[in-house]
Amino acid sequence: MHYDVIVIGLGAMGAATLYQLAKRGVRVAGVDRHAPPHDLGSSHGDTRITRQAVGEGAAYVPLALNAQRIWRELEAQSGEALFEACGMLMLSSSDTPTRGHGTADFAGETAALAERFGIKHSLLDATQLRTRFPQFGGYGDNAVGYFEPGAGYVRPERAIDVQLRLAEQLGATLYNNTPVTTIESMGQGVRVQTSSGALTADKAIVCAGMWTGRLLGAPVKSLLKVCRQQLFWFELDEPERFAADSPVYILLHGAADTDSCYGFAPLPGENAIKIATEQYLEGCDPDAVDRSVSQADIDAMYDAHVAGRLLGVSRRVLKSKVCTYTITPDFNFIIDAHPQMANVTLVSACSGHGFKHSAGIGEALAMHHCNEPGAVDLSPFSLARFR
Ligand SMILES: Cc1cc2nc3c(=O)[nH]c(=O)nc-3n(C[C@H](O)[C@H](O)[C@H](O)COP(=O)(O)OP(=O)(O)OC[C@H]3O[C@@H](n4cnc5c(N)ncnc54)[C@H](O)[C@@H]3O)c2cc1C
């Protein structure tokens, strides 16, 4: 079967790209080694933070804003709740600015971008923080808060599911449980070899998440590092501290990018808060990710990030999950033509901050494919910066 485009990998980036292409009448197929949404890649765990003033850099802001618009459009079409605009508090209690995703002063850059793009926000001193957000503690009088009311969280599994279902209704073909083994450029197109036969297309867009390096090999592989991350759902002793309209939060409490944690208020019906930190030191093999979380891991997380900082939260973990970031050397995305394979576009797994942009990235890729005017400029994510 020959398609205009084959999207390889149907997680956050692939589902969005497939949907946006199908919406534009492109003859498109999506292929995944599993049956998305699933919990074996980088897009599971119930919630993902979305922010508007994206401290990772100005190039991301239009993608995040477009994604929020698209979540609302998808909600209207599907009847599913995808995006909860509960606001976001970034609480900085460190004497030195905290690094985040490659940005030296993550909170400072966030506030600067909010000013630059006219994004609604407020800055809070320690007294205002204590009054307004009594669920957080352990900071001194020098602490500052950045509150963004238009931020919140997205439901990743639902968002993927909705986009895949809508894409199928619009004519896309889905090949689930079908690993792609090789991609070859040939003449004006590509040949995609799968476990159950070959497909051809004019173009392939590779959104294979943490398996991208393995699928594409050198030179892409050397730019991607897969880092295992852990998610913890700590049971609440004082649920009244985390009201239904509690914001998502990013707590910055040291100079390094690992001196931070982020989390969510309980989802309806839950009595636990999901919280996580980030680690970039240890890489892992995407096909041998250790999915167990030990009591020692739980204790380390609680002692470093929860105790004294999130009030009314017990040491008891009701649920835990392992997920992976696939990071680039500068923590920024790669969205570009493959440097050696004609007709192949590469969309990296987006370094632990991609979900909030995924719907916007899918739309931008589809608009560029269809030569539509007004598409978001994706050149800041090109491979040229590594040459
Ligand atoms: C713990 C954690 C917390 C995060 N928090 C946030 C957050 O709060 N906000 C935010 O914006 N971002 C966050 N992120 C980042 C965001 O979730 C990722 O950037 C994004 O989900 C990556 O999507 P993806 O499509 O690249 O990868 P995935 O969703 O993993 O999709 C890749 C797909 O490719 C398929 N595949 C791979 N190889 C093949 C093959 N050979 N053949 C066929 N199919 C293949 C896989 O089965 C998979 O379905 C977080 C990530 C993690 C892990």
From TrEMBL:
Gene3D superfamilies: D-Amino Acid Oxidase, subunit A, domain 2, FAD/NAD(P)-binding domain. The keyword Flavoprotein applies. InterPro entries: FAD-dep_OxRdtase, FAD/NAD-bd_sf, MTOX. Its EC number is 1.5.3.2. SUPFAM superfamilies: FAD-linked reductases, C-terminal domain, FAD/NAD(P)-binding domain. Residues 4-366 form the FAD dependent oxidoreductase domain. The keyword rRNA-binding does not apply. Pfam families: DAO. One of its GO terms (molecular function) is N-methyl-L-amino-acid oxidase activity. Keywords: FAD, Flavoprotein, Oxidoreductase. Its cofactor is FAD. NCBIfam families: PRK11259.1. This is N-methyl-L-tryptophan oxidase. It comes from Phytopseudomonas seleniipraecipitans. The gene is solA.
